[in-house]
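go over this chain:
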Amino acid sequence: MRIIVNADDLGLSESVNEAIFQGMQRKIITSATMLANGPAVKAAARELKRFPDCSFGVHLNLTEFEPVCPDSLRDLKSILNENKCFNGNSVREVHIGVPMLRAIYREWCSQIDSLIQLGVEPSHFDAHHHVHTIPQLLPVLRALRKRYKINKIRLSRNMYGESQNPGRVLLAQKWAFNLALRAARFRTTRIFTDLPTFVRKCSSRTPDAPSAELMTHPGSLATDGEADLLAEHWPSKLSYDVALISYKAL
C-alpha cells in the first residue's frame, strides 16, 4: 500500500515550519500544504529545496488570516471579520452564488500565484479546514485544475474511527463528492483520514485500497496521540509493509 503523510499548515508559524521540516528530515512526513497568507510562509518557502523528494501543495484558505487578493476585501466582505481577516467557518454559513464563486476563484488564484512567486512548484490542492470540500466550490476547483494544470487533490474524509459517527447521509454526500472530483479529472488517493485513526483502524489488516493520504499537524496542538506517533517510526505498528510516497508519485 502506498501512503502519503501530509502535514497541513506549512507557513502558519516558525514552530510549525520547524516541526514539519523535522518530520521530513526523518522521512516520516512526505508532503506538506502551504498557507499562502500564513505569517511564516516566506520562511517556509526558503527551505523547500532541502527536501526534493517531498511534495508541496497549496492549502487553499478562506477561514484565517488576511486575503491575498486586494479585491477580496470588497468581494468577500461577507466572510471577513472586523479586522479584514477571514472569519472562521463563515464561508459555510453564507449563500455561495456566482459572484462569490468568481471572487473565491480570484482569491485562490492569488494565493497560488503568490506561492509560485516564492519558488514553490505546487503538487496538489487541499484546503484550510477542508473548505475545498464544500460542494458548491467544485466549479472553482475545476477552473483551478485547468488554469494551473494541477490535477491532484485531497479527498473528502472517508475513514473514521469507531468513536466517530458521521452518519450515513454525510458519508453518502462525501462519497458523491469524491466521485465528482475524479469525474472532474482529479487524481486522488482512495482513502483520506488522519494518522492516528489510520493506525488504530488499520494496524492489523491492510485496507482494501491501493493508496491513502494521512493528515498530520506537526507543531500544533494536535491531540489523539499524533505527536507520539510522529515521534517514533509509526509504520512499525502496522502488520504489513507500506511505501511512504509524496504526491509526486501518486
